[in-house]
Amino acid sequence: MRFEADAAERLDKFLARVLPQHSRTRLKKVIEEGGVLVDGVVRLPAHKLDAGMVVEIGEVPPTPPHDAEPFAMDLRVLYEDDFLLVIDKPRGLAVHPTRSQKAPTLVNALLARPHSLSTAGGGYRPGIVHRLDKETTGLIVVAKTDGAHVLLAKQFAAKTAERRYVAAVKGCPAEERFTVNAPIGRDPHSPIKMVVLEGGKDAVTHVRLLRRLDQGALVGCRLETGRTHQIRVHLAAVGHPVLGDHLYAPREYRDGPMQLHAALLRFVHPATGETLSFFTPAPEDFLAPDFLESDLADL
To answer: Which of 157, 187, 218 is a domain's end point?
Structure first.
């Protein structure tokens, strides 16, 4: 296949745009393996294209099939049709298998259901458009078809899909509203932690104080980006770590379940064009479970 760049753009982003049937992760791997030429020269994924440059790519190999086993479990499904489903994920359920994750995951549960799942997210992530941390509760959308997956993923990338969270945190913020705009990267001292890091990926979290609590405060958070552990890292960085967070909170604030809940999810249906909005209250072990959807309207 042969394409001509029409503007200045990263090579991997350009290919993801002109070949939306393939995931950017898959295309990046093809580039890294030398399967893409720019004006006849092998380039890296971050290579900057200029208008008029010719990009050539061979057949993109299919995503290798996952080897996760189906595992039937009860899931709280808030919405389902032929294209997608929206699930209220419980605490303690990882979203997809990893080398260190041996217990059944949401993916295992999805594979036990009588419907197809998209393959655009990669071999171990059938259906998974976005993630929630294992101990975070709340809303997650799952794609049944590759077409739905691609269109949903574009909404998350363009920040038109909305995700709003509530968190019980240490201390009370001095400001009613503030934004944490700080890049996030992997902690050089820990393989499992992220950290605010110069040179990391851009990350923006908008925060609003909802109410004071005996243990600290309840805050609402709106994501502009979706970095790993983003809310947890950003709140810890400004001195208000999520209570119950065993990675980022000081030891004296780690007792009990993690107080982070994905309460609101809004996106445009990839087939009908209808705007879908979902809200789910926090579980019973949340310190302030009586917040309302209206509390998250102005974030």
So the answer is: 157
